[in-house]
Specification:
8-stranded mixed β-sheet; 34% helix; globular
Length: 254
């Protein structure tokens, strides 16, 4: 196993212990960040543990996390990208759809990704050039090539309205066979394992996407923004089984 992936799996183990310890706790401490999104004591605890262990195991690497920002040298060739709890709003409400996302970016390319969802009992992971896996089994995207037969998952509808993209979004919805709103990390992982053909979001950040990108791509899929640029830098995202990507982009750009 890729040594950075092996370390990421160990970090995910530690994160899972923390998130499950606080999940459904009546005394869970929740605060609002300056952007008015919620953060819990579990989010912060996970990011601290990851940072502490990386400082020991990979002192030459940098880190950027959702809760505490950048650490380490800006000149480092390798950095870790951490979302301690993707799906914090679910986590707070006792919904088991949340995950710790860990990615390793080397020389500008996402080389390793782990999405660990302990309440779902599922972990997806990949290293560049080595394939994508879930719980030890190789995964692959679907082979459906007709948009009318495709299953599409989306984020909350209010995000599309806020972004001024509702009409374009509905243009894609009308073309597919079936829609659901799984949201967050989960629908991209469902694309990677072949359960969905498309997953789309109008507002996302680097730490939401980095780990997911390499997993989807190693499963044979495609992962871009809504302009078709292959990036995990944030803004917008479309993941697909590759076969339907261009047609979906054309629909949502209309």
């Amino acid at each position: 196993m890729n040594p950075d992936l092996e370390l990421a799996m160990e970090l995910a183990d530690a994160a899972d212990v923390i998130t499950m310890r606080h999940f459904l706790a009546r005394d869970l401490v929740v605060e609002s960040k300056p952007d008015m999104t919620p953060v819990t004591e579990a989010d912060r605890a996970v990011e601290r543990v990851v940072a502490e262990r990386l400082a020991f195991a990979r002192p030459e690497h940098a880190l950027i996390g959702e809760e505490f920002g950048a650490r380490g040298s800006a000149a480092a060739q390798t950095r870790w990208i951490v979302d301690p709890i993707d799906g914090t709003k679910n986590y707070i409400r006792g919904i088991p759809v949340f995950a710790t996302l860990l990615a390793v970016e080397a020389d500008g390319d996402i080389a390793v990704g782990v999405a660990s969802a302990p309440a779902l009992g599922r972990r997806w992971y990949a290293a560049r050039g080595e394939g994508a896996f879930a719980d030890g089994e190789r995964i692959a995207v679907s082979k459906i090539a007709d948009l009318a037969e495709a299953k599409l998952s989306h984020s909350g509808l209010e995000g599309w309205e806020t972004a001024g993209r509702m009409a374009q979004f509905l243009n894609l919805v009308e073309a597919v066979g079936h829609t659901r709103g799984f949201g967050d990390f989960w629908h991209h992982m469902l694309v990677a394992q072949g359960s969905l053909e498309l997953a789309v979001e109008p507002e996302v950040s680097l730490w939401d996407l980095a780990a997911l990108k390499v997993i989807v791509e190693e499963a044979g899929g495609r992962f871009t923004d809504l302009k078709g640029v292959s990036t995990a830098a944030g803004g917008t995202v479309l993941s697909s089984n590759r076969l339907l990507h261009e047609e979906a982009l054309a629909r949502i750009a209309t």
